[in-house]
C-alpha cells in the first residue's frame, strides 16, 4: 500500500509538472503572437487589406491558444493532458507556424519597401535641388549619366520587390523554408538598395565639390 501511495503521488507530481510546462509554453506562444500582431499593426509597408487578413488570423490563433490553455488548466490526469497535447501538436501547431511565418514574411518585405520608398524620396528631392543649382556643361553631362545609373538601379529594385511582394501575397503555405528562401531572395534587394544609396551619395558629393 505504501508503494502504491508513492506511485500515485509520483503520477500526480508528473501530471502537475506536465500541466505547468504546457501552460508556460502556451503563455509564451500567446505573448509571441500578440507581439507579432502589434508589430504588424505598426508596420506602414503592408497593404491594408493584407494586414487586416493576417491580423484576423493572428487573433484567431491567440483565441485558440487561450482555449487550449483553459483545457490544459482543467486537465486532472495523464490521459486528459495527453489528449489536449495531441490536439495542440496535431492541429494547432501547424496553424501557429503558418500564421507566424506569414506575418514575418510580410514584415520583412514591408521594412524593405519602406526603406526603398524613403530612398526614392531622397533621390527625388536631390534631383529637385540640383535642378536649381548652377552647373557647367560638363557637370550637367556627368549628372545626367549619374541619373541614368540611379534610375536603372531603382527600376531593378522596384521590379525585384514587386515580384517578391506578389509571391508573399499569393503564397498559401507559409513555413520555415518559405521564409528562409524569402530572406535569401531579399539579399539582392538589399544589395540594390545599397548601390542606390552609394550612387546618391556620390552624386551629392560630386555636385558640391
Category from helices, strands and their pairing = mainly alpha
Shape: rod-shaped
How far apart, in Å, are the first and last alpha carbons?
Answer: 94 Å
Instruction: Give me the oligomer status.
Output: single chain
Largest sheet: none
Task: Please count the helical segments.
Answer: 5
What is the helix/strand order? HHHHH
Characterization of the model:
This protein has 209 residues and is an all-alpha fold. It is 90% helix and 0% strand. It is built from five helices and no strands. The protein has helices at 2-42, 48-74, 78-131, 137-170, 176-208. Helix 2 (48-74) runs antiparallel to helix 3 (78-131). The longest helix is centred in the middle third of the chain and has 54 residues, at 78-131. Residues 1-14 have low confidence and may be disordered.
SSE blueprint:
Layout: H1 2-42, H2 48-74, H3 78-131, H4 137-170, H5 176-208
Helix pairs in contact: 1-2, 1-3, 2-3, 3-4, 3-5, 4-5
Write out key terms for the chains shown.
mainly alpha, rod-shaped, 90% helix, 5 helices, single chain, 0% strand, 209 residues
Amino acid at each position: 500500500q505504501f508503494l502504491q501511495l508513492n506511485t500515485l503521488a509520483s503520477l500526480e507530481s508528473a501530471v502537475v509538472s506536465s500541466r505547468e510546462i504546457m501552460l508556460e509554453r502556451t503563455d509564451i506562444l500567446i505573448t509571441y503572437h500578440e507581439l507579432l500582431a502589434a508589430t504588424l499593426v505598426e508596420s506602414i509597408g503592408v497593404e491594408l487589406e493584407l494586414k487586416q487578413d493576417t491580423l484576423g488570423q493572428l487573433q484567431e490563433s491567440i483565441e485558440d491558444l487561450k482555449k487550449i490553455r483553459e483545457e490544459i488548466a482543467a486537465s486532472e490526469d495523464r490521459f486528459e493532458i495527453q489528449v489536449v497535447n495531441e490536439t495542440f501538436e496535431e492541429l494547432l501547431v501547424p496553424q501557429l507556424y503558418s500564421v507566424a511565418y506569414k506575418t514575418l514574411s510580410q514584415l520583412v518585405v514591408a521594412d524593405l519597401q519602406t526603406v526603398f520608398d524613403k530612398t526614392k524620396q531622397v533621390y527625388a528631392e536631390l534631383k529637385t535641388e540640383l535642378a536649381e543649382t548652377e552647373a557647367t556643361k560638363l557637370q550637367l553631362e556627368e549628372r545626367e549619366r549619374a541619373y541614368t545609373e540611379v534610375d536603372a538601379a531603382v527600376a531593378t529594385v522596384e521590379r525585384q520587390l514587386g515580384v517578391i511582394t506578389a509571391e508573399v501575397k499569393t503564397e498559401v503555405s507559409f513555413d520555415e523554408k518559405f521564409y528562409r528562401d524569402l530572406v535569401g531572395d531579399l539579399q539582392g534587394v538589399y544589395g540594390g538598395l545599397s548601390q542606390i544609396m552609394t550612387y546618391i551619395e556620390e552624386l551629392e558629393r560630386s555636385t558640391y565639390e
